Amino acid sequence: MCGIVGYIGPKQASPFLIEGLSKLEYRGYDSAGIAVHDGSLISIEKTIGRLANLEQKLEHHNLEGNLGIGHTLWATHGRPSDVNSHPHSDCTGNFVVVHNGIIENYMHLKEELIAKGHVFTSETDTEVVAHLLEEHYDGDFEAAVKKVLAEISGSYALVFMSKFEPNKIICTKQDNP
Ligand code: GLU
Predict the structure, then answer these.
(1) Which residues line ligand 1 (CB under 6 A)?
(2) Fewest beta carbons less than 10 Å away: which of 34, 46, 68, 157?
(3) Which residue from 1, 2, 25, 156 has its CB within 8 A of the most atoms of ligand 1, so it is best to mutate?
C-alpha cells in the first residue's frame, strides 16, 4: 500500500509533505518522493528506502514552493529503485503524477506513446499517465486529465500537478485502490 499527500496554501509545501508522509509510514513502503511547484517550475526529489533518506536528500536540495504532492510507494511494476519511485513526470517535466493502484492497460498505452516519440525513464505503469497528459494537453489541464482518465483502466488514486497551474492539484479515484 502506498500513501499520497498533497498541499496548497501559504506555507512551504515540503515540510508539510514530509510530515504527512511520516504519518503514512505505518502503511509500509519501499521508496518515497515529493514534487513542489515554485511558481514557475516543478522540482522532484525521490529515493529508494526510508523517508529519512528523502529528508537527507532534501537537506542538499531544498524544494521551495507553496504547492506540492508526496508519495510513499510499494512498487507493483518494476523493482524498488530511485527511478521507479514516484512522482513521475512526462518528457518535458511540465506534468507530474503520483499514483496508488494499478493501470491495467499500461503496456498497450506505453507502446503507443513510445511509437509517438515519448521517452520513458521508469518501469512503472504510472509513468504512462504523465506522458498521456503531455499528449492530451492543449491549454486546459482539467480537460486533459479527463481525456487521460478516459483512456486508462484499472483501480487507482491519482494526483496530478501541472507547471502551467501553480495553484491547482487534481485528485481522482477509481474503485478501491
Ligand atoms: N503501480 C504503481 C507502481 O508500481 C503504484 C503502486 C502503489 O500503489 O504503491 O509504481
Answers:
(1) 2, 73-77, 99-102, 124-126
(2) 157
(3) 2
Q: Ligand 1 centre from 10 Cα, in Å?
A: 30
Beta strand segments in the chain, E: 3-8, 31-37, 42-48, 67-73, 88-89, 95-103, 154-162, 169-174
Q: Whose CA is nearest to atom 8 of ligand 1?
A: 100
**Which contacts qualify for 172-176: CB closer than 8 Å, 24 or more apart?**
172/145, 174/101, 174/149, 175/101
C-alpha grid cell, residue 127: 509513468
- pLDDT of the chain along its 177 residues, tens only? 689 999 999 999 999 999 999 999 888 889 999 999 999 999 999 999 999 999 999 999 989 999 999 999 999 999 999 999 999 999 999 999 999 999 999 999 999 999 999 999 999 999 999 999 999 999 999 999 999 999 999 999 999 999 999 999 999 999 987
